[in-house]
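Quick one - first record:
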Amino acid sequence: MRTGEPGTARAYTPHVLMGRESERRTVERLVAGARIGQSGVLLITGEAGVGKTALLEYGAECATDMRLLRAAGSEPEREIPFGALHQLLRPALGHLDEIPPPQAAALAAALALRPGAAADRFAVGAATLSLLCRFAEDRPVAILLDDLQLFDRPSAAAVTFAARRLMADPIVLLAASRTSELAEPPDQSAQLPRLALSGIDLEAAGELVRRRSASAMTPVTPELLVRLHRVTAGNPLALIELAGAVDRLERTSPAAQLPVPAALVNAFASRARSLGDAGRAALAVAAVAGGDLRVIVGACRGIGVGVEALGEAEDAGLVRIADGRVEFRHPLIRAAVYGDAAPERRRSVHRAVAEALGPLEPDRQAWHLAEATLGPDARVADLLARTAARAHDRSAHDVASAAYERAAGLSPDVDQHDLFCVAAAESAWLAGAGTRATALLTRVGDLAASKVRLRALELRGAIAARTGSLTEALDIFRAAARESSDADARIELLADAVSVCFYLGDAAVAIDLGGQIEDLLQRATTPRARTLGQTAAGVARILTNRGGTDQLRAAVELLTEHGHLLDGDRRLPWLLVGPLFLRDSGSGSGSGSGSGSGSGDELRRTVREVRAEAAVGTLPFLLFHVARDEATTNQWARAEATYDEAIRLARETGQNTELAMCLAGLAWLQARLGRDEPCRALVAEAMPLCRARDIHLGRIWSLFALGELDLASGNARDALAHFDELDALLGTLGLSDPDLSPAPELADVLARLGRRDEAWRTAERYRFVAVTKGQPWAMARAERTVGVLGPVADIDAHFEAALGLHARTLDGFETARTRLAYGARLRRARRRVEARPQLRAALATFDDLGAARWAELASIELAATGETIRRTEPTGAHTLTPQELQVSILLAEGRTTREVAAVLFLSPKTVEYHLRKVYTRLGIRSRVELTERLHDLLGGG
């Protein structure tokens, strides 16, 4: 039963678990696993009264030798930021300063323990995970969460974020959530393992009913039992309640249906109506005020009722009063009492509760005043706006959004209404609720103040770009830029539009926008606007092969000079795009629109800073670019791990654009690694996302992946089909950037099919556009293609030119392909001895990268020169899973286990679990050996 300690479970009787042998064994197994360091998580779902709480209590009985952490959701406290999380973590807060400082600061601010600024919505979840794992280091922990559907949403998000990451810690987490028409479980719980409870069987129902009706005047006949079981579907609480009123059931038509839990609500409401006027009034106060008896006493006094009238409700079995708290026997009783009260009675009770709370609890007071108010009220709107601001400062963005929205509804001033709607939408977006944020923004009228309207348009565009329609995002950003009269603001909005064009592959619009930006740059006043403008204009030109590198270099110089430009902003990743589009190794830059090379040092530094702040929401975009940079250098193993993490986080944060691009990027990498099934599976997932949202760049990468996969496998006709489709798509989009063109691969396939004239024309056209761009990566591919198809006398000239250009990039794979093609051409020209060094170098690179099929092709060519090939099976980083590799890399860089756990949002024991598997796979026993084994992998940064 619930006592004075918050979170103690409500009353339950063990015989409610009759017929639940399988479910009990599941709970026993999870608790036993936690004792030996194997985490267990289970979300128990079912309608009200089905036995969820009883099963939780059985878990508590099984965990008698473990530390217990518990929390229970409460309807009156659903809008109190992190109330349930504080309830849960209170016994563990003594360890708060033993978790990573940024996480500790975020959690302390969320729980109002210390002042602090708003953090990423996942930072509190990461801190919750760290604190729970630290608390479990001394003794196994059992976590019991009842009525999860009644948790405030920030608490539910933090708890489920942590639950999804429990693996190797001595922790069992059991949660119960109702799944009826009255309340759905929070979205965050969707990925947790579930146990759905249904009704008990007839035999167990008979025993339960006999116990309940043993002293009843009317015995339960077998026929009545069958009917009772049928109408309740075996729901234990319904059986117990209705068995106490079998005479009423007997008077009901056998054809009548008694919906459960609606039948329970009606039964509870009927029991409450049997109380006297004072008892009903006091019970209504308890339903509104929550469990604090002090507040209930004050509110009862406010409506002229003595709190002693609650004794009548306690005698009726509706509530229990103990240790300064009033607890309803079941949440449905509270719902029934509140729903049965007249609207005016409810408003008067809310007003009395607000007065009883007083200014010491301003947030709860504001919510109750809002419920007590019928029409517009500037004072209450202002109180709610202050409540929202405080919730925002604690990273309780869901609560902040709800408060701002209610403030908008109560504000008599039109401008304030619009301002509050935008603030509500911004908080909803920070909470990850893009659809809700967009709906809130539609309430901002066309006549809104210009600054408010621009804020609304900018946010709508950002939401559409990350999770909705890219075409819509482009239209919104262009409209916002037209409305803005400030040059710097227009540049930033147009840069956002160019960023969308990059994903859309819309070259025509991109170059038009770039021209507008170039005109505006003469009036730019801030380094930030100049940097964004130069970057966006440069990207627009590159997409259409009209230069752009000088502008990108200017942007990189501005970034170097003004490092503060990268400080926390949603455009932070866009500011880093410039270095990634520059091609040559001397620029210290990366991957561009198609393939390229570079160190990505600035990106990795930024990722480290974002990880330190536990800013999970920012990571998918950054990791996408880091992975692309790694995939286009010699860092393939790193790239696979980075893509994998980006995909997992993009799914979790609902960032569909980054999800689609990362799936396509990883598919391309898997194609080069020669992994047929994973590549095709990734493309199969990416393509529908790309088509649905017009992410044409993702379609381009996916087609490239399929084409290269078939090319390396010798499936020339299938490869041709993919490359032809890709070439046609580029033509439709007007994209003439040679870095996106499959012309070198297309020429290779045509030559294999005996269509050499077509292949030659393709090679010549590509060489022209590559020379026009003037960057080494594309020019090297052009020279290789001409070298493969041109006269024998020109072999050395073209291939040596290609290798010289490759030396100005960091793309080892393309260099190895050129050496393979060079060696193969030399062998066919009967220059076998000269062919061998090229083929050996190609084979070594392909082996180092893990490009199995390309390595096999190089091996075949080398053997054809008369050289004996001795190759060994891969035993290095390529044998590790992406998560194992990510852990290994960070540890080999010198981080401690706790530091790695913090940056990957895992527990230290989970890191140790992965490390043990790495040691076994690699046959090593120390971190020194691990660093040595990964030395080549880490050499690139």
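second record:
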Amino acid sequence: MPDQAQSLDSLIGLEFGHYCILEQLGSGGMGVVYLARDSHLDRDVAIKVLHPGTITDESARKRFHNEARALSSLNHPNIATIHDFDNHLGTDFLVMEYIPGVSLNEKLAVGPLSEREVLHLGIQLADGLAAAHESAVIHRDLKPSNLRITSDSRLKILDFGLAKFRQSQAETAVTQSQLESHSFSGTFPYMAPEQLLGGEIDSRTDIYAAGLIFYEMATGQRPYLELPSGQLLGAILHRAPIPPRQLNPSISHDLEHLISKCLEKDPADRFQSARELDVDLRRLSRDSSSGTIPDALPRPPALRFLRNHKALTLTVSALFFVSALTALFLLLKARNLLPVLSTGSAQIQSIAVLPLVNLSGDPEREYFADGLTEELITQIGKTTALRVISRQSVMQFKHTEVPLSGIARKLDVDAIVEGSVLQSGNRLRVTARLVRASAEKPIWTEQYDRDLRDVLALQAELTQAIISEIKVKISPQDQARLASPRAVSPEAYEAYLKGRFEWYKISKSGFEAAERYFQLALDKDPNYALAYAGLADVWLMRSDSGYAPSSTTYPQAKASALKAIALDPSLAEPHVSLANIESGYEHDWPAAEQDFKRAIQLNANSADAHFMYADLLISLKRYPEWQVEIQRALSLDPINYFTRCFYGWQLIYLGRYDEAIATLQTVAATQPNFSSVHMGLWGAYYKKRMDKEAYEEAVRFFEILSDHEVVEALKSGYHEAGYRLAMKRGADVLAARSEHSHVSGIRIARLYSHAGENERALLWLEKAFDADESPVVHLSVGWDWDNLRPAPRFQDLLRRLHLPE
């Protein structure tokens, strides 16, 4: 076996423990890389055999072992995994994931890449860097030879963080001889200014190197390629590189700007995180996919490949001609001499605010970006002249790479707002961009740096800026509603956003956490109206989800809603909560209608207000008015499965069973474990007398609820005597259970009604009425009660509920 003095190019065929060396793959500053076979796991691996002297003693070996262990924890599809580190008979080696393919420098040997390919690879590079930086690992030696491209165009970053160890083996002061010998952390042409000067190295150092790689992918050459090595240090420290578009005019201005921002000399002027860089790359990629970024012109080969003088002359002439046309166009545009294209001047009447991207690098701060998104939607929604898509629909595009034009088509909007939020302590940076959806053409971009105490004023400022850019006319009443709200303490605002984040989990533990956060917000600011509105929603959902009886939850919800309205009468949300209480608990339909209308007056874009009002109208059999409100709700919340599901329920109320089944099946395809969609299908099949299908949906409904006792009762009854006995057996189980625990009376009545047990069904309906269960509001239209309607007891229930008979 070899010792440290043995040549590293003579190891092929040898065995390092259970690794058999097969062939040499390459070499670098730390050693030689081989393809090897792992006989234990029967797989190919890459082994880096370190140069003799790289590790000088056991203390250095221990430090490198610790570094390798830390790097092995990086588990990301764009980072090559480190499997092992060992020493075999005096030779130190590192075992890594073997990645078939070509290195990026091999790929670049034939010239620059297309802009789409630059962005495709760049997103993967930024994503891998972000994952590593969030684990406090810096690469320090990014370059094309350290990036591997697989046959399916997946990028893998190699040698992550190993330069850190190499730096500890040498002096950090930079001299020309060191530059020539590369005896420091990094590779000279790919080093950032602070790296060359021995300054502080952080994630922004990797971003500079990434910018150099983007430059080389876009142009086919490194910056400062024309300089002799003796002048390279001064150029990196003080000179800007040749603008990429001078070398490859086919790339976009936006990509050139992104590269230039990466290559800023001062780290403070670069992207401040790889996640921030990733966001901009993805935005450019979406623009490119939709055709906004031109990639259709044939890209000229890099100038260094133009050996024919005549070809060079023609190329320069063509570029001059294009530049002259561009200058003429800009001059005419500046003097308003160009005709206005009608396709670009259509008025914007609808808008969607996409989820803001969390740039903090901490997933635990996702609540802040989500909460700010919701509040911005609410603020813009106060403008009656615009249709603003609801939170529930836009949140489905979080972490998506769907092009903006595709999102706009799904949501049926004219414009989109997208952006990012970065919170650090009490400082807040929000970047926002308004894009015309038809052409993905940016209309407006702005960045705001504020104290967290000013966040509500920032929301108002952002809203005013967007409305101003859209040039929508707003009424004096809208203007008053958009006025800057009072300041709120950062602690109270953060607690409120955390409460909303937990509430949207729609779970028992989520509601408990939400209540704690809303109460914390009130501890910090006792007059915070939104926190009271949040508490009202918590208590309402506890009842609707079956976690607590309405006799306990509704009084609490009403008190919180009334307090919120008293503190801030301009809030729409507590009026929706109050209306739900007045309809579902008090059965005061006029009062509920008044509060629904008031909520809509305060925020015409409240999808919840329109949908809940529609649900009230259909219960009162006011069908023409229902049609108006439900269509408005669906236009504001077009892809929310919750809204679509209960729209399917309402179609059953109207006897439109086939439409209902089609709607509900569409929801079930994406939300197979949403119990309410299966209850709706159960009801539609029951009305169509499709007993087998109705039975199957009833079983699925109780399976999702994990009520195995009822499931077994349904199955035994169905196999013994069919649908009716199945329903009776299920009802009997629930009725027996109600003697020692809370069970919804409506649920028991439904099963007995389907079983034809009318008297028992009426008994449990009366119990549901006495317990103020909210589903009784649908007695006049519900699909379960048709065989009960002639009964005097049923008609008496309708009269007591003030519902149409």
